[in-house]
Amino acid sequence: MQKYLLLLSVFAFVATSTKGQDLMDELTKDQKKKTKEYVFATFKSTRLINGQTVEMTKKNALDFRISHRFGNIASAPNDHIHNMFGFDQAADILFSLDYGILENLSAGWGRAKGNGALNELWFANVKYRALRQTTDFKYPMSISFLAQAAVSAQRQQKNAPELLQSFPKWYHRFSYVLQSQIAIKATSWLSLQLSPTFIWRNLVLPNDKNGLFVMGFLARAKVSKRSAIVFEYFLPITKNGATFREYFPMVRGIKNAGYYPGIHLGYEIETGGHVFQINLTNTGGLLENDYLVYNANNWAQGQFRLGFTITRAFQFGKDINPWTGRYTKKKLLQDMKARAEKAN
């Protein structure tokens, strides 16, 4: 009888220990889940200079953006004096609104003047974040996807079939962009991103192609708590051959090529809910459907321009001030009262 009681006691002890260990494992697992932290502010905005970043518009937030690009600083002898270094011209103007539907899903809409073959561009897009980098590098990068459509509202040139503006069919006004943003915040001051992109235009000239692949490289280097130097480089990875427009002019010093890669440099300053940026770009357009496919400007010939961008985020939701994105005084007082009651 004593043997049976001893065996029963040992069995109960082992079962209790195992159950306790399982409980500890569950608690540890829950604690690990709770302590997982995401990297904050890989970039300061949903766009860096022209290009989309991996950043998302926050849920219930509205992101308002105005961008302006002046004319070329010097595209011909003494032209820089005549047009006041491009200030007399407006290469492109864009305004856009992006709304955060969910933490990882947003939708945008806007209008761009346009600088390429087609102008008066209305556009809409959807952006989804599939992966977000964590501070422990268990998820070493952030990945998001963009789908964008643009339509030209230009008047139809029926008597000029050699122009794109002839628009033989209504759908010839449309172009589309599919892009992935793959980014990593390498250090507290350096962020890097690759942007593989595919652009499709429903109507192109006979010496052009409807589809084009482009690779983008974006970088942000923080120089102070609220400012940074930003850089973008966009290069087509499609070589069309002798009978088509040349998209891959890699020979140094080449002049009057049909296309030049986009090179953008800027300096951004964050002030509360605003992000202000001043930049230099050799692309005149501001929309992917425009500046990635119609750039014939060469930095070496003074064909670059000054520009600026202002971004303002408005946070909506219960007990949130949309101008500051912070809780209202009423909400803060309620939280303080609740904490005091809990302490007592």
Total beta strand runs: 12
Q: Mean of residue pLDDT?
A: 83
How many DSSP helices?
Answer: 4
**Structurally, how many domains make up the residues?**
1
CATH architectural arrangement: Beta Barrel
**Widest beta sheet: strand line-up:** 1-2-3-4-5-6-7-8-9-10-11-12
Structural class: alpha+beta
Main pleated sheet: 12 strands, antiparallel, barrel
Q: What is the element string, with H for helices and E for strands?
A: HEHEEEEEEEEEEHEH
CATH superfamily: monomeric porin ompg
Q: What level of helicity do the residues show?
A: 10-25%
The CATH class is identified as Mainly Beta
Beta-strand percentage?
A: 35-45%
Low-confidence stretches: none
Gap from first CA to last CA = 54 Å
User: What is the fold named in CATH at topology level?
Assistant: Porin
- The whole-angstrom Rg is 27 Å
Task: Describe the overall structure.
This protein is of the alpha+beta class. The chain has a single domain, classed as Porin. Helices cover 17% and strands 38% of the residues. The chain contains 4 helices and 12 strands; from the N terminus they run αβαββββββββββαβα. The radius of gyration is 27 Å and the shape is globular.
